[in-house]
Design goal:
single chain; alpha+beta; Aminopeptidase; 6 helices; 8 strands; binds coenzyme A
Length: 189
Protein backbone atom coordinates (compact mmCIF):
# COMPACT_ATOMS: atom_id res chain seq x y z
CA UNK A 1 0.00 0.00 0.00
CA UNK A 2 1.10 3.59 -0.57
CA UNK A 3 0.89 6.83 1.40
CA UNK A 4 -2.51 7.36 -0.18
CA UNK A 5 -3.78 4.52 1.94
CA UNK A 6 -2.73 6.32 5.09
CA UNK A 7 -4.47 9.39 3.70
CA UNK A 8 -7.62 7.47 2.94
CA UNK A 9 -7.55 6.17 6.48
CA UNK A 10 -7.07 9.69 7.87
CA UNK A 11 -9.80 11.17 5.70
CA UNK A 12 -12.25 8.42 6.57
CA UNK A 13 -11.42 8.11 10.26
CA UNK A 14 -14.40 10.23 11.39
CA UNK A 15 -16.73 8.30 9.09
CA UNK A 16 -15.45 4.96 10.44
CA UNK A 17 -16.01 6.14 14.02
CA UNK A 18 -19.44 7.67 13.41
CA UNK A 19 -20.64 4.57 11.54
CA UNK A 20 -19.60 2.49 14.54
CA UNK A 21 -21.23 4.92 17.02
CA UNK A 22 -17.85 5.69 18.58
CA UNK A 23 -17.12 9.01 20.27
CA UNK A 24 -13.67 10.27 21.20
CA UNK A 25 -12.38 12.57 23.94
CA UNK A 26 -9.15 13.31 25.75
CA UNK A 27 -8.26 10.91 28.53
CA UNK A 28 -8.45 12.51 32.01
CA UNK A 29 -7.68 11.12 35.51
CA UNK A 30 -11.37 10.34 36.17
CA UNK A 31 -11.22 7.86 33.25
CA UNK A 32 -8.39 5.79 34.73
CA UNK A 33 -10.50 3.06 36.36
CA UNK A 34 -12.72 2.59 33.29
CA UNK A 35 -9.79 2.54 30.86
CA UNK A 36 -7.75 0.11 32.97
CA UNK A 37 -10.76 -2.22 33.19
CA UNK A 38 -11.13 -2.04 29.42
CA UNK A 39 -7.43 -2.80 28.89
CA UNK A 40 -7.56 -5.72 31.34
CA UNK A 41 -10.49 -7.25 29.46
CA UNK A 42 -9.28 -6.59 25.93
CA UNK A 43 -5.52 -6.96 25.64
CA UNK A 44 -2.96 -9.68 26.31
CA UNK A 45 -1.97 -9.93 29.97
CA UNK A 46 1.64 -9.03 29.14
CA UNK A 47 0.53 -5.58 27.92
CA UNK A 48 -1.96 -4.77 30.71
CA UNK A 49 0.54 -3.85 33.50
CA UNK A 50 2.52 -1.68 31.09
CA UNK A 51 -0.54 0.32 30.02
CA UNK A 52 -1.64 0.49 33.68
CA UNK A 53 1.71 1.94 34.74
CA UNK A 54 1.82 4.44 31.88
CA UNK A 55 -1.72 5.74 32.37
CA UNK A 56 -1.43 5.86 36.17
CA UNK A 57 1.73 7.96 35.88
CA UNK A 58 0.06 10.18 33.27
CA UNK A 59 -3.01 10.63 35.51
CA UNK A 60 -0.88 11.69 38.48
CA UNK A 61 0.95 14.21 36.28
CA UNK A 62 -2.38 15.61 35.04
CA UNK A 63 -3.69 15.91 38.60
CA UNK A 64 -0.60 17.91 39.55
CA UNK A 65 -0.64 19.95 36.31
CA UNK A 66 2.69 18.47 35.23
CA UNK A 67 3.16 18.23 31.48
CA UNK A 68 4.61 14.75 30.93
CA UNK A 69 4.48 15.19 27.15
CA UNK A 70 1.71 12.59 26.82
CA UNK A 71 -1.71 12.83 25.24
CA UNK A 72 -4.24 10.02 25.17
CA UNK A 73 -7.75 9.67 23.84
CA UNK A 74 -10.45 7.27 24.92
CA UNK A 75 -13.13 5.99 22.57
CA UNK A 76 -16.58 5.17 23.86
CA UNK A 77 -19.48 3.14 22.52
CA UNK A 78 -22.35 4.57 24.58
CA UNK A 79 -20.52 4.73 27.91
CA UNK A 80 -18.31 1.71 27.34
CA UNK A 81 -14.62 2.18 26.61
CA UNK A 82 -13.76 0.36 23.36
CA UNK A 83 -10.34 1.79 22.50
CA UNK A 84 -7.47 4.03 23.54
CA UNK A 85 -4.65 5.63 21.59
CA UNK A 86 -2.19 8.45 22.10
CA UNK A 87 1.26 9.89 21.57
CA UNK A 88 4.09 11.34 23.59
CA UNK A 89 7.05 13.65 23.21
CA UNK A 90 10.19 12.85 25.16
CA UNK A 91 11.74 16.07 26.43
CA UNK A 92 15.16 15.23 25.03
CA UNK A 93 13.85 14.54 21.51
CA UNK A 94 13.49 17.16 18.76
CA UNK A 95 10.07 18.78 19.19
CA UNK A 96 9.29 17.99 15.55
CA UNK A 97 8.69 14.33 16.33
CA UNK A 98 6.38 12.36 18.54
CA UNK A 99 6.07 8.71 19.51
CA UNK A 100 2.82 6.84 19.02
CA UNK A 101 1.41 5.59 22.29
CA UNK A 102 -0.76 2.67 23.24
CA UNK A 103 -3.19 1.53 20.56
CA UNK A 104 -5.64 -0.88 22.16
CA UNK A 105 -9.05 -1.75 20.78
CA UNK A 106 -11.80 -4.09 21.89
CA UNK A 107 -11.97 -7.33 19.92
CA UNK A 108 -15.67 -6.65 19.43
CA UNK A 109 -15.03 -3.39 17.58
CA UNK A 110 -15.32 -3.87 13.79
CA UNK A 111 -11.96 -3.55 12.04
CA UNK A 112 -13.01 -0.24 10.39
CA UNK A 113 -13.73 1.09 13.88
CA UNK A 114 -10.25 0.07 15.01
CA UNK A 115 -8.70 1.65 11.95
CA UNK A 116 -10.80 4.78 12.62
CA UNK A 117 -9.07 5.06 16.01
CA UNK A 118 -5.68 4.85 14.33
CA UNK A 119 -6.77 7.37 11.68
CA UNK A 120 -7.89 9.70 14.46
CA UNK A 121 -4.38 9.71 15.92
CA UNK A 122 -2.77 10.35 12.53
CA UNK A 123 -5.24 13.12 11.81
CA UNK A 124 -4.60 14.76 15.20
CA UNK A 125 -0.84 14.66 14.58
CA UNK A 126 -1.30 16.06 11.05
CA UNK A 127 -3.32 18.94 12.49
CA UNK A 128 -0.52 19.69 14.98
CA UNK A 129 1.68 21.63 12.59
CA UNK A 130 4.98 21.34 14.48
CA UNK A 131 4.95 17.54 14.39
CA UNK A 132 6.81 16.37 11.31
CA UNK A 133 7.26 12.70 12.05
CA UNK A 134 5.57 10.03 14.11
CA UNK A 135 7.77 7.21 15.35
CA UNK A 136 6.21 4.05 16.68
CA UNK A 137 7.83 1.21 18.61
CA UNK A 138 6.05 -2.05 17.94
CA UNK A 139 6.27 -5.66 18.99
CA UNK A 140 8.00 -7.35 16.07
CA UNK A 141 6.71 -10.83 16.77
CA UNK A 142 3.20 -11.79 15.79
CA UNK A 143 2.83 -13.78 19.01
CA UNK A 144 2.86 -10.53 21.03
CA UNK A 145 0.75 -8.31 18.77
CA UNK A 146 -0.36 -8.11 15.14
CA UNK A 147 0.07 -4.33 15.13
CA UNK A 148 3.31 -4.52 13.11
CA UNK A 149 1.48 -6.27 10.26
CA UNK A 150 -1.30 -3.70 10.36
CA UNK A 151 1.10 -0.74 10.21
CA UNK A 152 3.13 -2.43 7.46
CA UNK A 153 0.00 -2.99 5.42
CA UNK A 154 -0.92 0.69 5.77
CA UNK A 155 2.50 1.74 4.46
CA UNK A 156 4.23 2.88 7.63
CA UNK A 157 7.97 2.88 6.97
CA UNK A 158 10.10 0.36 8.85
CA UNK A 159 13.26 2.12 10.03
CA UNK A 160 14.94 -0.13 12.55
CA UNK A 161 14.95 -3.30 14.60
CA UNK A 162 16.33 -3.95 18.07
CA UNK A 163 16.76 -7.65 18.61
CA UNK A 164 16.04 -9.26 22.00
CA UNK A 165 14.41 -6.00 23.16
CA UNK A 166 11.35 -7.45 24.92
CA UNK A 167 13.29 -10.56 25.99
CA UNK A 168 15.24 -13.32 24.23
CA UNK A 169 14.22 -13.51 20.56
CA UNK A 170 11.59 -10.79 21.01
CA UNK A 171 12.39 -7.88 18.78
CA UNK A 172 11.20 -4.29 18.77
CA UNK A 173 10.64 -2.65 15.38
CA UNK A 174 10.55 1.11 14.95
CA UNK A 175 8.21 2.46 12.29
CA UNK A 176 7.80 5.97 10.97
CA UNK A 177 5.12 8.12 9.35
CA UNK A 178 6.36 11.20 7.48
CA UNK A 179 3.76 13.90 8.12
CA UNK A 180 5.56 16.49 5.98
CA UNK A 181 5.21 14.21 2.96
CA UNK A 182 1.56 13.59 3.76
CA UNK A 183 0.87 17.33 4.13
CA UNK A 184 2.68 18.04 0.84
CA UNK A 185 0.15 15.89 -0.98
CA UNK A 186 -2.19 18.71 -0.03
CA UNK A 187 -5.09 16.88 1.48
CA UNK A 188 -7.85 18.94 2.97
CA UNK A 189 -8.64 17.56 6.39
C1 LIG B 1 -3.61 -3.68 17.84
C2 LIG B 1 -5.10 -4.01 17.83
C3 LIG B 1 -5.90 -2.73 18.09
C4 LIG B 1 -5.52 -4.59 16.48
O1 LIG B 1 -6.83 -5.12 16.58
P1 LIG B 1 -7.22 -6.51 15.90
O2 LIG B 1 -8.50 -7.01 16.48
O3 LIG B 1 -6.10 -7.46 16.05
O4 LIG B 1 -7.39 -6.05 14.41
P2 LIG B 1 -8.37 -6.60 13.28
O5 LIG B 1 -8.17 -8.09 13.15
O6 LIG B 1 -9.78 -6.13 13.50
O7 LIG B 1 -7.78 -5.88 12.02
C5 LIG B 1 -7.83 -4.46 11.82
C6 LIG B 1 -7.30 -4.20 10.42
O8 LIG B 1 -5.94 -4.58 10.33
C7 LIG B 1 -5.78 -5.63 9.37
N1 LIG B 1 -4.93 -6.69 9.89
C8 LIG B 1 -5.10 -7.38 11.05
N2 LIG B 1 -4.13 -8.31 11.18
C9 LIG B 1 -3.33 -8.19 10.08
C10 LIG B 1 -2.18 -8.87 9.64
N3 LIG B 1 -1.60 -9.84 10.35
N4 LIG B 1 -1.63 -8.51 8.45
C11 LIG B 1 -2.18 -7.52 7.72
N5 LIG B 1 -3.28 -6.83 8.09
C12 LIG B 1 -3.85 -7.17 9.26
C13 LIG B 1 -7.15 -6.20 9.14
O9 LIG B 1 -7.20 -6.68 7.84
C14 LIG B 1 -8.04 -4.99 9.34
O10 LIG B 1 -8.06 -4.13 8.19
P3 LIG B 1 -9.20 -4.32 7.03
O11 LIG B 1 -10.52 -4.21 7.70
O12 LIG B 1 -8.88 -3.21 6.08
O13 LIG B 1 -8.97 -5.68 6.47
C15 LIG B 1 -5.46 -5.07 18.92
O14 LIG B 1 -4.85 -6.30 18.59
C16 LIG B 1 -5.05 -4.69 20.32
O15 LIG B 1 -5.71 -3.90 20.97
N6 LIG B 1 -3.92 -5.32 20.79
C17 LIG B 1 -3.42 -5.14 22.14
C18 LIG B 1 -2.60 -3.90 22.29
C19 LIG B 1 -1.42 -3.87 21.35
O16 LIG B 1 -0.80 -4.87 21.03
N7 LIG B 1 -1.11 -2.67 20.93
C20 LIG B 1 0.02 -2.44 20.12
C21 LIG B 1 1.14 -1.98 20.93
S1 LIG B 1 1.18 -0.22 20.92
Amino acid sequence: MSKLDILTLVQNSDKFLIRNNITSSRFCPQDLKMVIEFVENSTPSTITPLVHKTLSFHSECMKHRIDDGRKYWKFLDNSNCVAIIGFHNRIWDPSSLCWGGWFCAAKTLPSRGKLGVLGYLLRTCLETQNIQRILIEVYGDEIDSNVYQIYKKLGFQEIGTIRDFYGANKKMITMSVDLVALRSIGISL
